[in-house]
Amino acid sequence: QVQLAESGGGLVQAGGSLRLSCAASGGTFSNYAMGWFRQAPGKEREFVAAIRWNDANTYYGDFVKGRFTISRDNAKTTVDLQMNSLKPEDTAVYYCAAGPYDGSWSTQHWGPGTQVTVSS
After folding, report:
1. Which residues contact 114 (CB under 8 A, 6 or more apart)?
2. Quick one: pLDDT at residue 74?
3. Which neighbouring-strand residues pair with 105?
4. Which residues in 12-29 are b (16+ Cβ under 10 Å) and which e?
5. For residue range 7-31, what is the model confidence (pLDDT) as tens digits?
6. Which residues contact 46 (CB under 8 A, 6 or more apart)?
């Protein structure tokens, strides 16, 4: 059973940085992609970033605009999201997701989420 555990959320001032980490366990991930979604109060969940496990190709939501960087650590089976130049509108619960990637991404597994709050 694949399990995902996020860490690294918190409160930061606008313009600051946070690093989120997602630890995956309980499966093999060679054909997986892992990444992040977020959901702000009253809004739909939106795609933030993803990385393919086998070749480290990365994908980002349009709003990221170079502020966030996703990376993976094969040895630890973790995926990190470095978030810089944070804005109040980045405030949301951030969810780690994982699943097979075969031309499209099937997000089969989700973490419980970690709160990110950016104050103005």
Report:
1. 6, 7, 8, 9, 20, 93, 94
2. 77
3. 101
4. beeeeebebbbbbeeeeb
5. 999 999 999 999 999 999 998 888 8
6. 37, 38, 39, 61, 63
Q: Distance of CA 120 to CAs 14, 40, 81, 94, 114, Å?
A: 5, 16, 21, 19, 20
> Each residue of 37-88: pLDDT tens digit?
999 999 999 999 999 998 999 999 999 989 999 999 877 789 999 999 999 9
Q: Which residue has the tokens 């190709």?
A: 57
Residue of 94, 110, 103 whose CA lies nearest to 48: 94
**DSSP-assigned states of every residue in 48-97:** EEEEETTT--EEE-TTTTTSEEEEEETTTTEEEEEE-S--GGG-EEEEEE
State which amino acid sits at residue 120: S
Q: Are strands 58-60 and 32-39 parallel, antiparallel or unpaired?
A: unpaired
For residues 73 and 50, give the distance between their C-alpha atoms in angstroms, rounded to a whole number: 14
Query: What's the token pair of residue 71?
Result: 């990376």
